[in-house]
Design brief:
Length: 308
C-alpha cells in the first residue's frame, strides 16, 4: 500500500469555453500528501486551488498528468477512489428542505454506514459544530455561518480517510472556526488525512503540518509555515516606527520594507540582539514580534508577481 493518501504528478487542467480563449488553470502540479497529514493549499484568487480539489475529488477530469488517491488512479478509476473521500465544496450549500440533523444522518446512511453508527456520528458532529440548537430547523432558515457549519458537520461526520475542504470556515465566527480546527485535529489523530484551502493564513498556520502555495496553476513553494517564514529571511519582525530614514544601516540584517516613516525588518533570531543595539544607539524605538504567515505569503507571492 502506498504511503500517500494523495499524490499528483504534473497535473494540468485547461478549461475550454466557447467564444473565450482556453484557461490553463493548472500548469503541472505535483503534490504529495502522506497519510494522517493536514496540508493547506494557499494561493491568490484564481490560482487553481479549487480546480485541483475538484480533480482530486473526481468531480472534474484533468487535461493531463497523473493523480492518485490511496494508490488508485483518480481519473481512470474514480469509483475506486470515491469511497475514501469526502468533500466540502467551495460555496456548497446544505439541502434547504432538510434539517442539519436529517442531512448529516442521510448522508452517512447513503455512504453505507449502519443506523446506530450514523445516529451517534450525527449527534457528535452536530454538537461539535454547535448546531444542536438548530438541528431540527430547515436549513433554509439558517444563517450563512450556520449553513456552512452544517456543511462541515456533514463531512466531518463521515470520518472519511481523505477529506477535501475548500475554504471550510468561510463566513464562520472565530468560535466556530476554532471548533472546525479542533475537529480536524481530532480526525487526523484518528488517522484521516486532510487537504484544505483557506485565505485565512492564521488558520493555515494553526491547522496545517505543511502547505503548498499555488500561483498561476503551479506550485510556487511548499514546506512548513516556518520554512516559508525562513525563506523570507527570518522568523522575527522588528518594527522601527521612525526608522525609514535609516534603512541603509539596517539592510545587512535582513529584508527591509519601508512604509511612510516606518521601517520593518525581517531578521533571524540570532541577529536580533545586534539589531536592537543599533536601534538603541540610533535612538529609534522598536517593537519586536513574530513574522506571521500572512507577511511571509505576501512577500513570497509578491516577489513572484514582481518578477513577471
Ligand atoms: N469552469 C471553468 N471554465 C473556465 N475557466 C474556469 C472554470 N473554473 C475555473 N476557471 C478559471 O481557472 C482558474 C483557476 O480557478 P480556481 O477556481 O481553481 O481558483 P482558486 O485558486 O480556487 O481561486 P479562489 O481563491 O478565488 O477560490 C481561474 O482563472 C478561473 O477563472
Ligand atoms: Mg477556489
Amino acid at each position: 500500500m502506498t504511503d500517500f493518501a494523495l499524490w499528483s504528478e504534473n497535473l494540468r487542467k485547461v478549461y475550454m469555453s466557447k467564444g473565450a480563449p482556453p484557461t490553463e488553470a493548472l500548469a503541472g502540479v505535483s503534490i504529495e500528501v502522506r497519510r494522517g497529514e493536514r496540508v493547506a493549499l494557499l494561493g491568490r484568487n484564481g490560482a487553481g486551488k479549487t480546480t485541483f480539489l475538484k480533480i482530486a475529488s473526481t468531480l472534474l477530469r484533468p487535461t493531463s498528468g497523473r493523480i492518485q488517491v490511496f494508490g488508485f488512479d483518480v481519473d481512470q478509476t474514480p469509483e475506486k477512489a470515491r469511497p475514501y473521500i469526502a468533500v466540502v465544496p467551495q460555496e456548497g450549500k446544505p439541502f434547504f428542505h432538510l434539517t442539519p440533523r436529517e442531512q448529516v444522518y442521510t448522508y452517512l446512511r447513503a455512504r453505507g454506514l449502519g443506523r446506530e453508527t450514523a445516529k451517534t456520528r450525527t449527534e457528535e458532529a452536530l454538537q461539535k459544530m454547535g448546531l444542536t440548537e438548530f438541528a431540527n430547523r430547515l436549513s433554509i432558515t439558517l444563517s450563512g455561518g450556520q449553513r456552512q457549519r452544517a456543511m462541515v458537520a456533514t463531512v466531518i461526520a463521515t470520518e472519511a480517510p481523505l477529506l477535501f475542504l475548500d475554504e471550510p470556515t468561510i463566513g464562520m465566527d472565530p468560535f466556530a472556526r476554532r471548533s472546525v480546527w479542533e475537529s480536524m485535529r481530532a480526525l487526523t489523530r484518528k488517522g484521516s488525512t486532510i487537504l484544505l484551502t483557506t485565505h485565512y493564513l492564521d488558520e493555515a498556520e494553526a491547522l496545517s503540518d505543511r502547505l503548498y502555495i499555488i500561483e498561476r496553476g503551479q506550485v510556487l513553494v511548499s514546506g512548513t509555515a516556518d520554512d516559508l517564514k525562513r525563506s523570507v529571511g527570518g522568523t522575527v519582525k522588528v518594527l522601527l516606527p521612525e526608522g525609514a530614514a535609516r534603512v541603509e544601516s539596517f539592510r545587512t540584517f535582513g529584508s527591509c520594507v519601508t512604509d511612510g516613516e516606518a521601517l520593518t525588518i525581517i531578521v533571524e533570531p540570532e541577529r536580533l540582539g545586534e539589531l536592537m543595539d543599533l536601534a538603541v544607539r540610533s535612538k529609534l524605538m522598536a517593537t519586536v514580534g513574530p513574522v506571521t504567515l500572512e507577511e511571509a505569503f505576501l512577500r513570497v507571492v509578491g516577489r513572484s508577481i514582481d518578477v513577471d
